[in-house]
Design goal:
Blueprint (H helix, E strand, L loop, with lengths): L1 E12 L8 H13 L8 E11 L3 E2 L6 E12 L6 E10 L2 E6 L2 E6 L8 E3 L6 E3 L5 E2 L4 E11 L4 E6 L6 E2 L3
């Protein structure tokens, strides 16, 4: 689910960047540092604007200045039970790996409907019902997230396509 959050970031600036365009440089640096990053709880999709930039504080002994920037950002936090659209990145007999934007999701073969079976003789590797449903690399899937796991700078999810209106999206 997407949220609008007000966040804070400290950025250090070398003295060679001091001058009339300091605030512009800090804003550019903020975008480069945080957009697309993950803090283990959510992904920062985009920075909307810098709400406030503090006065620089010179760090003793190094000469660099430290600025605190308060900013608004659009963040995405995946929740258990959320239904998402994904693109399959790899397929093997254990299941399917898919990407929901920056979030990797694994769908176990036990969480794929029983009529869709692993076809070991197919090229490329795929799950199929011998009809129009084929799950292979590049296939669009609708997945329900069963659980998420967070690490320090990343997230991972387990998903299912074994319920109504889930699975092959046919896009």
């Amino acid at each position: 689910m997407f949220f609008l959050r007000e966040l804070e970031r400290e950025i250090t600036l070398h003295p060679s960047f001091f001058g009339p365009r300091t605030k512009e440089y800090l804003t550019t640096r903020l975008h480069e540092d945080v957009e697309g990053s993950c803090n283990g709880q959510y992904y920062i999709i985009t920075v909307l604007d810098a709400v406030s930039i503090s006065e620089g504080r010179v760090v003793p002994g190094s000469g660099v200045a430290e600025y605190t920037i308060h900013y608004r950002a659009v963040v995405w936090r995946p929740f258990k039970g959320e239904t998402v659209d994904a693109v399959v990145s790899s397929v093997n007999r254990m299941g399917v790996f898919a990407d929901v934007g920056p979030l990797p999701v694994f769908v176990s073969s036990h969480l794929i409907p029983s009529e869709i079976r692993w076809d070991p003789n197919a090229t490329p590797p795929q799950y199929t019902d011998n009809g129009e449903q084929v799950i292979e690399k590049g296939t669009h899937l609708r997945i329900k997230l069963i659980g998420t796991r967070s690490d320090v700078g990343s997230m991972f999810a387990i998903g299912s396509v074994k319920e109504d209106f889930l699975g092959w999206a046919g896009l």
